[in-house]
Design goal:
By secondary structure, this protein is of the alpha/beta class. The chain has 16 helices and eleven strands. Helix 11 packs across helix 12. The mean pLDDT is about 95. This is Amidase.
Length: about 450
Amino acid sequence: MSSPSDLTDAHRLLSMGRCTASDLIEDALARAHGEAARAFVRHFDAQARSAAFAADRAREAGAPLPSLAGMAISVKDLFDVAGQPTTAGSRVLQGRPAATTDAAAVARLRRAGAALVGHTHMTEFAFSGVGWNPHSPMPANPVTLALDATTPRIPGGSSSGAAVSVATGAAWAALGSDTGGSIRIPAALQGLVGFKCTARRVPLQGCIPLSPTLDTACAITRSVRDAVRMHEVLADRTVARRERPWPLWRLAVPRTLMLDGLEPAVARSFEAALDRLRQAGARIDEIDLPELAELVSLQARCSFAAVESWTWHRDLLATREAEYDPRVAQRIRKGQDVPASDYLTLQQARADWIQRVEARTAGFDALLSPTVPCVAPPIIGLADDDDVFFRTNALLLRNPSVVNLLDGCAITLPCHRPGDWPVGLMLWAGAERDDDLLTLAGAVEAALA
């Protein structure tokens, strides 16, 4: 039997009795302890095997299998898992008592039968898109390493280990978070699918916050159909897929900001993807979206991430700042002296900005952009050069963070040709348009295959 292509395929084979969940989980655990070892900060082998065993017994008994029955799912070290500590990639939280209950998102995964394989590596407190963490070795991007073994490249962040766990086969899907692109960046850099739903769709209880205004609990997968499956579990809802022929979709490519300074490999893959979609019958307009040029001035006085993270971290920073990643502490401290008036002004300005963006894009079903403007940068230089690090981080966050500020939804899917550097195509729209976006993403995935 050939290996399953994705989570949905594995579930189908399990339901047919063509494989066992126990065999699948042993393969995943071997990878988690082998090639994906750096992707994990702790392993949940016993409970993963237990969930797989329960799925096998249910199938043998003829019971219907839940949607994630015995399937290997990794969890970002930001979400509570009962019986395990949650450390958010930080030394500051080492020694923290184990969680007594699951985070809301984890509880939904468990109810769907997921075999949780471990907590994954991440940027400390989820505060960058690079994936760098000085407290634990960053896993190299396994997809680019296969293309060029001489130059290890970043996995992307902050859900770095989450993406690596999926790319290496240590998990079929990964629970992570997205505050400014932390799901979509690593997914794009590793040729995976990352869906950022409308933030309010999935509860954040039991998840260490970065910015409650922008934080989104969501998943990295191998396919769009897996993204739908994971979203239905995490959001506890059924996606309404309203299929339609290509000429009835109206799509737009915003020229403002999103196409600035694209690396040649990204530009080539993006343009080739647009050509393929047009050949399939898609109607794609290029538009100006001047509101995107306002983002720097909008956040000139303060950002949601700085102000809201300072609120959570101020007591820890007062006593244990020396144990933080200095780059993370530096960004959190930017919220220290922000007046309440500036924070309230930012909230009001954001609401006005959202209204204007939605008015300008109202005639379109979705917008198309490169997920990030570059391929995965080399790791070398990031550790010792702050200028390189912050320039790289800003570049990675530039495009995806637009959607978080919009309070919208977005999905990245690979658009490069086999053998090329991984490049992500981002489809995005305003709030509560998740179902149409997922439907469209399925059609795009098929057109690009």
